[in-house]
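User: Design a sequence. Structure:
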């Protein structure tokens, strides 16, 4: 049985502020990711790292307060481009990916921009706010190198708190959770990101009279976004895997009423999520 290997990542805080600018890297690799809070853009742009050719991600908040937005771009000088985007785009955090050895060219980052767009759309964790970028023409050996760089970028941005490319994998049946009620019947998984409800799960269509206004609005937004679709007069269906920040929110959306997700979500053996994950004596 294969075992995942440990990884060591260095995160440097230039001014000692854990919520400020951060520079993440594998010390044995050439790619760095610079974390830039919008409020510290001016400070970040004084860093030499942002004078380089690079790829960047802009993370923002959606109008509905739901999934974060994502814009992917490339620049010959990351700092200057982020200053421009500070006026043109709405964002909260930027992640600039550069080479410590200045190895990236315009063609390299344009290819990475296209590839990252495709991977982010496939992972479907963020609302991508752009059209498909142009794919640059680079040689096969260069693509091989860029894929290695992408794997580094993927790990570093996730380590910084942005799992842009982490695809949702359905676990083995023994790890699946189930939530049932009336016509509702959905499967899910409890993860470090929250409670994932998998595509195909059924939700009660009607909202209970005592449902919180937020719950009703959330279900309507999921219908509008195409995450839920109407099956018949009694049921809705999840069209894609969807991550909720808490088990209770996931259960409430599935059941169409206020719910305690810790007791509503159950494993195949009948134990609740609470019994398995919050019972210290288990």
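Assistant: Done.
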């Amino acid at each position: 049985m294969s075992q995942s290997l440990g990884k060591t990542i260095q995160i440097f805080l230039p001014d000692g502020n854990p919520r400020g600018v951060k520079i993440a890297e594998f010390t044995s690799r050439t790619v760095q990711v610079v974390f830039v809070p919008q409020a510290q853009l001016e400070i970040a742009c004084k860093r030499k790292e942002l004078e380089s050719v690079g790829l960047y991600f802009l993370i923002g908040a959606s109008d509905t307060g739901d999934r974060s937005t994502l814009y992917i771009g490339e620049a010959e000088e990351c700092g200057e481009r982020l200053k421009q985007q500070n006026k043109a785009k709405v964002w909260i955090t930027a992640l600039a990916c550069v080479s410590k050895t200045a190895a990236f060219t315009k063609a390299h980052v344009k290819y990475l921009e296209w590839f990252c767009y495709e991977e982010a759309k496939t992972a479907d964790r963020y609302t991508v706010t752009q059209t498909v970028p142009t794919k640059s023409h680079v040689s096969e050996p260069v693509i091989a190198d860029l894929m290695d760089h992408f794997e580094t970028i993927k790990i570093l941005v996730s380590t910084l708190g942005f799992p842009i490319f982490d695809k949702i994998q359905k676990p083995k049946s023994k790890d699946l959770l189930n939530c049932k009620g009336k016509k509702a019947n959905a499967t899910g998984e409890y993860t470090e990101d929250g409670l994932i409800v998998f595509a195909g799960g059924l939700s009660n269509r009607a909202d209970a009279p005592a449902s919180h206004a937020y719950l009703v609005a959330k279900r309507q937004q999921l219908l509008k976004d195409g995450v839920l679709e109407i099956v018949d007069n009694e049921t809705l269906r999840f069209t894609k895997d969807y991550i909720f920040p808490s088990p209770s929110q996931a259960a409430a959306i599935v059941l169409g009423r206020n719910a305690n997700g810790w007791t509503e979500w159950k494993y195949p053996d009948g134990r609740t999520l609470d019994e398995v994950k919050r019972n210290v004596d288990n």
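Residues 10-159 form one domain. The first helix runs from residue 41 to 44.
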